[in-house]
């Protein structure tokens, strides 16, 4: 269905998924004794997969206007929200001696926040990685033209070598949390981005829709194996090491891609509940 204001085709299954994932992340960060917390690490891989799934065509056709739009959508909240929180926190602290972070934030805190995506507002490490991967993928797509997906796949293999050999941990572990968590996630996030591109490049979603029932059964079996048994073997890392998060994230994304909404009342409800998910994510506390 097309949005009447932008004339863009919108898949409301993905809009619903985006809302669920955002809610999942917020609950994961705030209610740390729930099942959602214990099994709460699949939403972020899913966000990366979804983001680069929709970025593939922009890269493929070298659409400069859309590339600029993407960077603006990521960079504006990445810069604006820390400014707002920095000012608001310090006004509260100076005036009332209490604040959002229970201290007065220094200029160096603000600078580190903008450079690494975290110092006082931790969650922006995700946007930091999204910016880095978007920039990296964009440069590679222009350098290698039609063979850029092959380069992405090579980077995926290198990323998993870094993770499973513990090179990724060894390289960044000596640095402070602000540096190592942001930089250490580049290798862990990159495979999710590559899989998002691959799903679109190979048109896997369309092909799986022909076998919808079988696909749902297989996804259910995979999730039972993931949640009940340690079949992929856990490895040390930051938040998303190993292939398990890629498999789980892709299963969730594919599952939602198999369905579409046609009911106008339901679509209106989805428009309403998904309208402010970005803002809720940006300002929630971890």
Beta-strand percent range: under 5%
Structural class: mainly alpha
Main β-sheet description? none
| Structural domains: how many | 1
Rg, alpha carbons: 20 Å
Mean pLDDT: 85
The separation of the N and C termini measures: 36 Å
Number of DSSP-assigned strands: 0
Unreliable spans are: 1-8
Characterize the overall form.
globular
DSSP helix count? Answer: 14
Proportion of helical residues: over 70%
Element pattern in H and E: HHHHHHHHHHHHHH
Model description:
This protein is mainly α. It has one domain. It contains 14 helices and no strands. The longest helix has 33 residues. The N terminus is likely disordered.
TL;DR of this structure?
By secondary structure, the chain is mainly α. Helices cover 72% and strands 0% of the residues.
